[in-house]
Automatic annotation (TrEMBL):
Pfam families: TspO_MBR (PF03073). The chain crosses the membrane at residues 6-26, 47-66, 78-95, 107-129, 135-155. The lineage of its organism: Eukaryota, Metazoa, Chordata, Craniata, Vertebrata. The gene is Tspo_1. It is found in: Membrane. This is TSPO protein.
Amino acid sequence: QGRMWAYTVGFTVLPHVGGFLGWFMNRKEIPVWYEKLKKPSWCPSRKIFPVAWTVLYTGMGYASYLIWNDLGGCSSKAVIPLGLYGAQLALNWAWPPFFFRARNMKLALIDILCLDGLAIGTMCCWYRINKVAALLLVPYLGWLAMATCLTIRIWKDNPQQKPGKSE
């Protein structure tokens, strides 16, 4: 029973690791570069992002634990459901360095469009295994939809921005 708590906590915390590293690596780019970009009026406040991602990462991490547990751990049955999850998580973690560090909005857009597809695929795959786990991804998909639209708008509205750190 004690070991299951460790697995629950581990799976739940895992998405936060990449999220925190992404924030830490890119935190200086936000006031220097991001704040100067033209953004739509519906762009969430900077203060919303850490709160939203904390909730979203917690939900998706716990959902991944449910899937892992239902499939008997690292079994052959878990390869595709957890592989999809891992792939979308990797793309999720890759977006901030592409967007903020490299300032490459086109690559960030390609990343988030692929991420959208993998996240939807993950949810559909998980739905057959554990409906609660799949439903825990619904807020994440909603946020990704907004983030995708925001990435598109920022990319379109800031054509003068090129990859690289020229000021």
